[in-house]
Structure formats: structure tokens, C-alpha cells
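Need C-alpha cells for this chain, all 263 residues.
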Amino acid sequence: MADSRSRDELVERAERAAAASGPQIQQFFKETAKEVLVALARNPHLQERDLLRLLERKDLPREVVGELAAHTETARNYTVKLAIVRHPKASRLASLPLLKFLFLFDLVRVSQTPGVPADVKLAAEETILKKVETLPRGEKITLARRGSGRVAAGLLFSEDPELVKAGLDNPFLTEAHLLKVLSMATVPRVVVETVAQHEKWSSRYVLRLALVRNPLTPIARVLAFLPDLAVNDLRDICADRHMPEQVRIYVLAHCAERLKTKN
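Here are the C-alpha cells for all 263 residues:
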């Protein structure tokens, strides 16, 4: 009997939440029952401030965020769209259709918001990179400095030295991003040369190996890197059939000299 009464009360609260208007809505914002929150999210009387107030709650069930994404007020309100995409409980199904409406640097915010699902961040980054070609130069440089590591890496495929430098100085860029860039056949020469001279990146061991392997790295930088590289790694480099013959000769000579000195 008690369970039946509790269920009836829950259904009654949900019905009131679905139909409430004006000040009556306020009593439902602290609800914890999912059924009531789902009903509230479907309430046609909800305004922008109501949707945003609900979305401030990070404990909202995924189904509730999905209902808020489908609300008619969301369709005409940019701020609500952004709040939904940045919500940690927003599903891919709810978020992805909204990404196309977001401004460039709001997409950057989405890609850097803790708690946003990884697949939504990835989709935001892909949306950003699709917009890159049409951006003014100044916005590209700002994006290279402030975007995610993946976005910064994507912007490195440029002949613009200032843009390349901005991307390399991005705090979210990682060795893994750069290794992937350096391995691409389409990487511009200015990128390789700038990485080879960069105070931070040119000191990383794995990147030095990648730079020695890259035919676009200036020979002077290759020679500067050799003393700090292990002989076994240098032998592996020489075994790479894609290595330029001139570099192979230098590396072999360097290895022979080090082994001779060691003995």
C-alpha cells in the first residue's frame, strides 16, 4: 500500500511539473526524481532562464538533458544550445546536432571543458578544423594559440611562419601530436625547420629521432642532434630505406667515430 501511495505521489508530482507555469515552476528545480525532472524538461512553459537554471545542475540524468535539447525554447536560444553541449551528461545524440550552430571560439570552449564526453570534444574539434580554411589569418593565429592540441596540430600544415610558431607554443600541444605531424608526407618544410629550432620541442629525445629521420630537417640540425642519440637508435635510423643517403652517411660516420672512441 505504501509503495502504491508513493508511486501515485510521484506520478502526481510529474504531472504538476509538466504543466506548471510562472512561479509554480520554481518548486521543481531541486527535484531529484528522474520521472519528475523528465516531465519538467518537457514543460512548454519553460523559458531561457529556466532551462539554464536546470542545466547548472551537473547531476541531471542524461534523459533530462536530452529532453532539454529537444525543447522548443532551445531551438531558438543560442545560450541554451551552448550550455547543453557543455553539459557532462549530454549524450552524443543530444550534442552533435547543436555543434553546427556554435561560434568558433565557443567550439573551442566545448573542446576544453572538463567533463564533456570525449566523442563530443572530438566532434567539436573536427567542426573547428572544417572552418579553418575560411578564417582570416588573425583568427587562425589566435586559434593556434588557444585551441586544443589536436586543433593546433591541424593548423601546423601551413607555410605561414607566425601561424606555425603560434601552434608550436600552444600549451595543449603534445609530443604525440607533433610526431604525427612530422610523419606526414605533406608537412611543410617551414614546420620541420621551426620544430628543429624550437627551444622546447627540439630538446625532446623522441622528436630529435623523428627530426633526424625527416628529409626536410636542415643537415646542421641533424648533426647537432646526433651526439645525444643512442647508437642503437641511430643504427635503426640507418636501416630505414627512406632515409636520405647523405644523412645516412653522416649518421654511419658518427656511429663509427663514437664506437672507436669508446674502444
